[in-house]
Amino acid sequence: MGKNLFIAEKPSVAREFANALKYNMRSKDGYLESEEAIVTWCVGHLVTMSYPEVYDEKFKRWSFETLPFLPVEFKYEVIENARKQYTIVSSLLNREDVSTIYVCTDSGREGEYIYRLVEQMAGVQGKERKRVWIDSQTEEEILRGIREAKDLSAYDNLGNAAYLRAKEDYLMGINFSRALTLKYGKTVKDYLKRDRAVISVGRVMTCVLGMIVNREREIRSFTKTPFYRVIGNFRLQEKPFTAEWRAVEGSKYYNSPVLYKENGFKKKEDAERLIGELSAEPAGPATVIGIEKKKENKNAPLLYNLAELQNDCSKYFKISPDETLRIVQELYEKKMTTYPRTDARVLSTAVAKEIHKNIGGLRNYALAAPFAKEVLEQGTYKNIAKTRYVNDKQITDHYAIIPTGQGLNNLAGLAPTAAKVYEVIVRRFLSIFYPPAVYQKFSLTLQVKEESFFASFKVLIQEGYLKVTDFSFKKENTAPKEDKENENESADEKCDAELTNLLTHLKKGDTLSVDTYEIKEGETSPPKRYTSGSIILTMENAGQFIEDEELRAQIKGSGIGTSATRAEILKKLVNIEYLALNKKTQVLTPTQMGEMIYDVVSDSIRPLLNPALTASWEKGLTMVADGVITPDDYMGKLTDFVGRRTVAVRGLNNQGMLWRQFQATEEFYQKKQKQSNAKNKE
Q1: Is a pLDDT exceeding 70 seen at residue 477?
Q2: What is the pTM of this model?
Q3: Of 50, 246, 407, 472, which one's alpha carbon is 20 to 30 angstroms from that of 281?
């Protein structure tokens, strides 16, 4: 009987597998071995796609004569700085005494690709191959994964999707970057007075660049509109409160052209006129013409997927999505949390059955111990499978990111930010086992003469899950978004116990005294710039950009990029200086170069800027992974798109128009530069 070979994605994971197997393993160069088994590892990617010049020396020189570059058979090569480990892994895969290979790379598309490239390059034949698919690196999960490992062929569709994703990025990157550089590189270079300019484009990154440039242009073209709201200061017995005037049916100003929406005026004098009319004798009291009293339940939010966690960490800690992914990967490798690269925000029914183990472990985590203990004692976890937090249909590869309840011995060694990220994950997890927060709501309609005023109050009467969400690091600006109320509900804070009691007993027909009226000036706000966190969420929810309902439904669940790649794409755009990232605020803006590249693409291969198209490519990959379409179908559409668009670029002659577009945006960057210089002088 031959040996089992376990191949992990990195050394630290390999060691966890070795520890879980409990074999007496000896350390060798690049692997561990016992009488029963061998454990080895990749170091990320060991094999990559070859550059075009490997196919033929003529491709080394960038020229339209050699485009489009669309090989029928793709070539691969060992990455030079990983050659030593590749040689070790390759020889182990082909050792005669190895009968079964357990593939233990990360459980996702990219992990699948990493292993299959190595196997392909090593020419492995005649071995039994099993795929280990795990959601955490705890010992019991590793052993379960090995025990339940399926034949590798069960993941062939996922492997096909992984190969296609790489081919897609490769073909679009090479053909479009070369074509656009050949056509427009000199124009960009001359305009910026640089020695050279390479125009780098990609399926996902160019689309993301487009979203951020579009937002910047929306902000630039935005014109602020002032408006004037009329606020009444009223008194319920001796308790003061405010209510807002609205021009509803019956009002003198109903559908009037002087209005800004229904609750304001375009000109201050019109607001003053209304106040004059309301204050004119006989002034009279305010009459209650409507009062609605109801309770509102607010459930704990769904669990974290990677995008939601990256967005919250961007807000709370001002760290980039790339940094969040690094931290949550570390937590995963330290057995503290489950697999990070997930799009799901729910648990599986299988996990729900064992969830008490995760909760039980958290009794040893000081910040959550009282809540974990309470959940176990009250048994609120027992019915979790019947709630919205468990849904097998919403899970593809992995369930949501949750704490394992293990690995807490590693807590002391975490960096402060990593410890806070762990706390955020734990609190979100425990909150789902608590009842909803309950609010008492009052909606009040008052009439003064023919005009109506509206006030709403909201009082928390049962804390529910909110008791879990009080972060140890909490500051005013880190309140969870789901707990922040509508900005218009500023009166909520003033609704103390006394006022609540008075409102409870208030009824239709009651009269209230009027103190004064005042004008509140405001102005419309431009769209907000994307932050590193909000762009990740936007990438995940690309369907929002699609007007066609049928198409939107088709790509549901497929955003731009994947949970595994979005942070990396954003990082690349910043590194190549197409985007600028403010590290203090995490706000993203285009650079002048980035905006110029946007114009280049817009005037040549515009579909690359379209989120709907990019998301539909991602949907296609998912369909390959699900076995709905064949790799050949996908590849046919891909080569047709790349080939047609590359040829079309060659025939364009629009450099003069581009130059004028560059000039139109340059002033904004000159202004920025002047402001930056002035700041530096200060």
Answers
A1: no
A2: 0.88
A3: 246
